[in-house]
Every structure is written in structure tokens, then in C-alpha cells.
Design a protein that fits this description.
single chain; 240 residues; alpha/beta; Rossmann fold; 7-stranded mixed beta sheet; 7 strands; globular; binds S-adenosylmethionine
Length: 240
């Protein structure tokens, strides 16, 4: 097998090449992202974000960063929790996704890359990432950046796709994600994105590898929990 090139599918790319291809892919589907998300998740995505937000339990007055914020759907959960005395920053590297978020009148939207956050160290109390870490070429570097911007006592949760551990569920999920999702995506002009989803999930780090990367970055009390029969997994940890 040769080295991945700019002609390779996105899921086989790495480094800066993956970064720009992922950015372009989300720019392409930004206008349809929310509708596709609701449909593909059978309207469960809002509930999953609420569960993830509860894991990091933002308190009134705290500062929360929603990284890889996309169209901003994590932010209302955080805004409600931190209240009028706190603040929520929504950060993403893809401008068209942030433009969709700005239509929802969300505050503090900013462009930034997960591996080089334009924030001071120890500036936030909570970081959430929804379906973002899988897309970042250097996951270790992203975990290190998230750790850097958290204050001592800060909490981090990442919600992403996973491979179900039960073999029967795993083969059913593989069938749906490889044969049904790309066809549904194609109807909305998003075949690449919904082929990328299962392909990148197959290549994504295991639950244990993600937890190890978080520990290596400095997080303590690292753990994970499955949702949707193991098709989704939450990773969480704390900065001591
Ligand atoms: C699947 S969307 C998730 C959006 C949102 N978090 C949600 O819950 O619906 C993934 C987002 O991650 C962003 N993203 C991917 N790689 C990134 C990076 N290196 N830095 C910042 N954002 C990134 C993409 O632009 C996209 O908006």
C-alpha cells in the first residue's frame, strides 16, 4: 500500500492533508448538517449532547469551551448551565459551520484549530467536544491543548462514534453505516461525508487508546461510557 496522497480518500489521509480535506468536507455540508444529524441519529443527538454536558457539570459562573463546535448545538446545554454570570466559547476551524452557528444567535463564536487553540493556558473550566476528535489528525496534540487551556479542577468530555463491542450489534451497525448512511447522505448531496463517517469510525482509536492519550496529556480520573449500544462513546477526564 502506497503513502496516502491528496488523491486518497479523506479517511486515508493524515497531517495537514487530512486537516484541509476535513475542513472542506464540513464546509460543503454546513447548510445541511443539522438536518442530516437529526435524521441519521434518529433525533437522538440532542439527548447525547445533554448526557455529555452533564458529565462535566458546568456550574453557574464558569467558562466553557465547546471545541469543534460546528453549528453550535452543544452550546445551549452549556449556556443554560453556566448562566448569565458564566461564558461559553464555541470554537471550530471551519468558517461555514460557524456561520450556521451564528444564525442561531450564539455568543462567542471563534475560529480556531484543536491542536493550536488561540486561548491562554488555564483559561476555561470545562471543554466539550462533540464528534470532533476523530477528525483531528493529531489526537495526542489536541488532548494536550485541551489540557493546557483547562484550569486546575477543569473537566473535559468528548463524545464520538465508536465500534460496538457486542459482535451482533457490531455487524448490524456496520451494515447500516456502510450501506444505508452513504445512500441517505447522497440524497442530500453529502455522500462523501456519510461515507467518511463509517470509514473514519473504523479507523478511529479504540476506547482504551483514547483514554491512554488523555492520561498521557495529564488528565486524571479518565473513564469512558457507551451510548446507543456502543455506537457512541463518551470519554471524560479531569485536570488535577
Ligand atoms: C461532526 S462535526 C460536529 C459539530 C458539533 N460538535 C456537533 O456536536 O454537532 C465536527 C466538527 O469538527 C470540526 N473540526 C474538525 N477538525 C477540527 C480541528 N482540527 N480544529 C477545529 N475544528 C475541527 C469540523 O469543522 C466540524 O465542524
Amino acid at each position: 500500500m502506497g503513502r496516502p496522497t491528496a488523491d486518497s480518500p479523506i479517511w486515508d489521509r493524515s497531517g495537514a492533508d487530512k486537516r484541509s480535506a476535513v475542513n472542506a468536507m464540513f464546509a460543503d455540508i454546513a447548510g445541511n448538517y443539522d438536518a442530516l444529524n437529526r435524521m441519521m441519529s434518529l433525533n437522538q443527538d440532542t439527548r447525547w449532547r445533554a448526557i455529555a454536558a452533564a458529565k462535566v457539570a458546568p456550574k453557574p459562573g464558569e467558562v466553557a469551551l465547546d471545541l469543534c463546535a460546528g453549528t453550535g448545538d452543544f452550546m445551549p446545554h452549556l449556556l443554560k448551565a453556566v448562566g448569565s454570570t458564566g461564558a461559553v466559547i464555541g470554537m471550530d476551524f471551519c468558517v461555514p459551520m460557524l456561520e450556521q452557528a451564528s444564525k442561531k444567535s450564539l455568543p462567542n463564536l471563534a475560529q480556531g484549530d484543536a491542536v493550536q487553540l488561540p486561548l491562554q493556558s488555564a483559561a476555561v473550566d470545562v471543554v466539550t467536544v462533540g464528534w470532533g476528535i476523530r477528525n483531528v489528525p493529531d489526537i495526542d496534540a489536541a488532548h494536550q491543548e485541551i489540557f493546557r487551556v483547562l484550569r486546575p479542577g477543569g473537566r473535559f468530555v468528548s463524545l464520538d462514534m465508536a465500534i460496538p463491542r457486542n459482535p451482533v450489534i457490531r455487524s448490524g451497525s456496520r451494515f447500516v453505516s456502510k450501506h444505508i448512511l452513504p445512500r441517505l447522505g447522497a440524497r442530500f448531496g453529502a455522500q462523501t461525508a456519510y461515507t467518511y463517517l463509517p470509514e473514519s469510525t473504523e479507523r478511529f482509536w479504540s476506547r482504551d487508546a483514547l483514554a491512554d492519550s488523555m492520561r498521557k496529556a495529564g488528565f486524571v480520573d479518565v473513564d469512558f461510557a457507551d451510548l446507543m449500544f456502543g455506537n457512541i462513546c463518551l470519554h471524560f477526564g479531569r485536570k488535577k
